[in-house]
Amino acid sequence: MINSNVALYTATVFSILSFFIFWTQALASQPHILLLLVDDLGWSDVGYHGSQIKTPNVDRLAREGVILENYYVQQYCTPTRGSLMTGRYPIHTGLQHRAILSLTPFGLPLEFSILPEKLKDVGYRTHLVGKWHLGYYTSVSTPTYRGFDSFFGFYNYGHDHFDHTHGGFLDLFRGEKVARGYNGQYTTHLYVQEVEKIVKEHDSSKPLFLYMAFENVHDPIQAPKKYLDKYNFIKDKDRGTYAAMMDVVDEAIGNITEVFKEKGLWNDTLVIFSSDNGGDPFYRGFNYPLRGYKRTLWEGGVKACGFVYGQMLKRKGVISRDLIHVTDWYPTLVNLAGGAIDSKPMPVDGFDVWETISSGAPSPRKELLHNIDFPEKRSGLLLTYDTWYSGAAIRVGDMKLLLHVPNATWYQVPEEGGIAPDMDEIWDQKTNIVELALYNVSADPSERYDVSPKYPNIVRHLKDRIHEYWKTAVPPGIVPEDLMALAVAMKNKAWAPWRDTCNAK
């Protein structure tokens, strides 16, 4: 009996020690994750793509890491952010379109477990600094209810970079409370100060997930004077201001890099850099030689600047041309952190692309649904410049099919002699619908040569794939405006969740 008890005790101790060793090793192997998302960054607007905008910090990280030259996001900010957080295509979350106004109760469905929640499950400390734009209809839709330990930023699609108002009301929050007292301070500078505080106070024994969601270079086009002066050589004044805004982003990334190094975290940090969609030439973001821009499914709207940096990469200083999509970050990062992928309420659409990025293995992704967003007839939905539907597009291998998409053209950057379009010009293009077009985007990345007459079998196959996806789509989440949002904003002089509280402080 004594021997049996000793054996049982020994086995129990061994099991506990084994679990402790396993858990310790797992924690030791978890990288810190720094996710840098730049708002409305154009393909043409980083130094490593030949831009005259000065981005030395971005360029250095890109060239010392893995540049993703076949990397895609969604055509709008909200769909991209939803796909980033869930690993699902917008048709599977209801985020086919984007949140247009503060009055729209539009956001991420609560039934999805999102990236920060999955990382918290395996010990990460999680922080969001910057833009949320995934709903605040009720408090439980906001970042600190969705897996973030802290939040300093704003809810809507954009706000004034100096007074932090959106539509006349303050939109700046610390956690769940309105953040007042920052008027006159440039938003990105506030964000860097917040990041520095988070990193300096971080417990280094814990893995860190820091999501830095810049407001720059989203309109309104504003920058402090010292950055504007660097771009006096650009004759288009608004383009010069846009360049200054990107200069601010690059400086911010340099400062964030330094605080990670000072804290001793840098060598164990994985950096992901991405735009949320293509640039908007009306607001002076350019994508040339790509066709199209933000809001469209042409390459200029969905092909994004992106790279990965980190000492844990098995290869560095290379360009990857493997197909990668923003939905792939969710499974890649959760797996890398040792977490579990949540397949409810539906399986993820993303792939784990770590070995593709790190080692150069072939991408598991051979097909990419860009979006399905056909016009709907629903009462209360208004057709405006921003709410025009984007149609559908899919890529399989080298071939990309577009169906019922608003037309778009090419815009060269003003520094190279290009002229920015006015609103009427873009509107005219968007009301000129291209019913069907097929491009070999590997051979023709600028989408100049429609080869649909030449390849009817490919057209038929890709149309079939779109229809298969369409069968799985959930209804779009965009709904008529909710005037209660305005009532609460007027009462509090600030935007806030409006369906469960009327007393934001």
UniProtKB/TrEMBL annotation:
InterPro entries: Alkaline_phosphatase_core_sf, ARSB, Sulfatase_CS, Sulfatase_N. Keywords: Calcium, Glycoprotein, Hydrolase, Metal-binding. The keyword Hydrolase applies. It comes from the Eukaryota. One of its GO terms (molecular function) is sulfuric ester hydrolase activity. CDD domains: 4-S. Pfam families: Sulfatase. Its cofactor is Ca(2+). Residues 31-338 form the Sulfatase N-terminal domain. Belongs to the sulfatase family. This is Arylsulfatase B.
